[in-house]
Amino acid sequence: MVIEEMGERAIIVKFGDEISPDAHKMVIALDRFLAGLKTLFEWIPSYASVTIFYDPEVIGHEEIVRIIGQFRPEEIEEVEKETIEVPVMYGSKYGPDIEFVSDLNKMTVEEFIKFHSSFIYEVWMMGFMPGFAYLYGYTGSKVPRLERPRKYVMAGSVGIAGNQCGIYPFDSPGGWRIIGRTELKIFDIHKNPPSLFDLGKRVRFIPI
Questions:
Q1: 191 three-state secondary structure
Q2: Half-sphere exposure (Cβ direction) of 82: Cα atoms closer than 13 Å
Q3: Which residues contact 162 (CB under 8 A, 6 or more apart)?
Q4: Which phi and psi (to 5°) does residue 21 adopt?
Q5: Which H or E run contains 89?
Q6: Which of 45, 130, 138, 177 is the most exposed place for a label (fewest CB within 10 A)?
Q7: Distance of alpha carbon 21 from the chain centroid
Q8: Helix, strand or coil for residue 3?
């Protein structure tokens, strides 16, 4: 674990420089540790680090470092991870890039659908837009982003970029390869919490 300053209002706690299950486990543990405290700062978990933002007039850098020093990952109890089943309409008008991704993996479309839906994915990071979950678990060929992002991607679209999967919560531009779509509402401002996904939750795609 390495703590680095990021200007006068943020620090970053790093658990290595590579994306890995071990680093992610530490990120989850620190997130749960901080969530269990009455803190005077906010934080954002990512793949292998946690960035803490603070107001120096409210809490000092030294105090935050002191709090982080109390973090004992071995004392953080693991909680049972909820698995969310996401029904997906693969291919056709719902997944315009599925043939490209299938060919990349040297599979037929039918084989790729079975392959993609065989994994249990895990939310390793939230970002890009409210409710957008970066899902880890895909082990196929890395998928290049579109050279020119689409101006419009429909909400619920399931995409792949690199070795990450994600579901667009809103209609928006996007550069990921779209392989299908779900009718599940991913983000609803009227619900608490508004996002269907959160750090550490698991996702299983169900072809329909």
A1: coil
A2: 8
A3: 142, 143, 145
A4: -60, -35
A5: strand 83-90
A6: 130
A7: 13
A8: strand
Give the list of residues 6+ apart from residue 147 with CB closer than 8 angstroms, or none: none
- pLDDT value of residue 179: 98
Q: What is the DSSP string of 40-55?
A: SSEEEE-SSEEEEE--
CB 43 within 8 A of CB 50: yes
The pLDDT tens digits for 117-175 are 999 999 999 988 999 999 999 999 999 999 999 999 999 999 999 999 999 999 999 99
Q: Whose CA is closest to 19, among 173, 136, 189?
A: 136
d(CA 20, CA 125) in angstroms, rounded, equals 13
DSSP string, 110-163: HHHHHHHTTS-EEEEEE-SSTT-EEEE---S--BPPPSS-EEEE-TTEEEEEBT
Closest CA to 24 of 105, 115, 121: 121
Asked whether the bond before 193 is cis by omega within 30 degrees of 0, the reply is yes
CB atoms under 10 Å from CB of 66, counted, come to: 10
Per-residue pLDDT for 114 more than 80?
A: yes
Instruction: Count Cβ atoms below 10 Å from residue 136 Cβ, excluding itself.
Output: 20
CB-CB contact of 88 with 208 (8 Å): yes
**Amino acid residing at 145:** R
Q: Write the DSSP symbol of residue 53.
A: E
Percent of the chain with pLDDT over 70: 100
